[in-house]
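Reopening this ticket.

The earlier resolution said the output was attached, but the attachment link was broken on my side. Pasting everything inline this time so it's all in one place.
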Amino acid sequence: MPAQSMDELVALCKRRGFIFQSSEIYGGLQGVYDYGPLGVELKNNLKAAWWRAMVYERDDVEGLDAAILTNTKVLHYSGHEATFTDPLVDCRSCKSRWRADHLTEPKCPSCGSTDLTDPRPFNLMFKTAVGPVDDGASKAYLRPETAQAIFVNFKHVLDATSRKLPFGIAQIGKAFRNEITPRNFIFRVREFEQMELEFFVQPGTDEEWHQRWVESRVAWWHAQGIRPEALELLHVPADELAHYSKATVDLMYRFPHGLEELEGIANRTDFDLGSHSRQQQELGLSAEVIDNRESNTRLAVQDLDTKSWFVPYVIEPSAGVDRGVLAVLNEAYRKETLDNGSERTVLGLKPHLAPIKVAVMPLKRNHEGIMAKAKAIKQALQALGLGRILFEETGNIGKGYRRHDEVGTPLCVTVDFQTIEDDDTVTVRDRDSMAQERVAVTDLASYVSEKLR
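Inline output:
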């Protein structure tokens, strides 16, 4: 059973070192969070799983890691400067600020006053200055999404790899949005990471590819431990689509605070590549496409049969890493009442996502033989490349088991007197069943590898 409230997850994350409020000793920074020792492992494991599925397991996708600082012209011609806004209202009584589209009634959620300003557009992009003098001409943006960097690098990747349609470019990276009201822990924040794929296809095949990517992404989230009944598909109504979108399907997940977007799969048509290309009349682009006379790059491909040039359509599966972390934490969280009446908290994370794969525990901390054997086992398991193997020397095996249940460690290995005095076996305890099994040290590597597969 997932967490009953966000407070349960927040408390666990702070207590066990998953996620902390940024700059908390100075009062914190709203909408900004730091990932602790276990959080960074979980986050990296989720990103690695996405990268494996998108790049390594496919033969039609290349990777990219582009810069965060973005030339203002990129975001001008992409339409972000004109459209990347939220409606902002101020409460004249308590001076708080709110997104107008989040207010269910015309009154301040903080103080109840109805004395609100009229909504006005608020641009979400963070500005900065590049160079020693902030004279206006040195303005740049922290990117609000990773997608535009893929589009402006389209020709570089195409030339370097000689790819043919259909093919994609994948990127994981930071993005920044100056949210008016960040909320719900790491669900809506000002600094976050995205996992985005731009998959370029022949016009006319875009609707088929859009559906295929929706099905693929649903299956991937299921493989990360998300229950099928916890996901819903939302076909975004035409009057709510983003300015670049022909069709968007949002994967909606039941977070502790309600049903909200986990990932969006959009059909962006040829909007972005067309917007960044100056040969619009020559390529037959629509008049609605932004006229860019400052780029001299043809972001198009040639049809080898007709020799004509065309701008590819693009399908974009875009997921937030932080929202993904929150979802898998929520799905994995459960409390169990044991036969003796005690209660344990468990994170039933999939093994490939677990921050710690195996905890190696010596039964006695001051016993030289047990400690040496435990350290040797830890090193041998670490060499398998399965992920983090932790040497846990607290000396209290029962408390160690409970702690590792709570942080999602699939297996605990206990080295005891029998290990060094008798048969060279260890006790391996399973997180989910709590079953314990004696395993020969010589067989431990294959046993652990199989269990974590």
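Reporter confirms the inline version is readable. The longest strand covers residues 258-269. Residues 16 and 403 are 9 Å apart (CA to CA).
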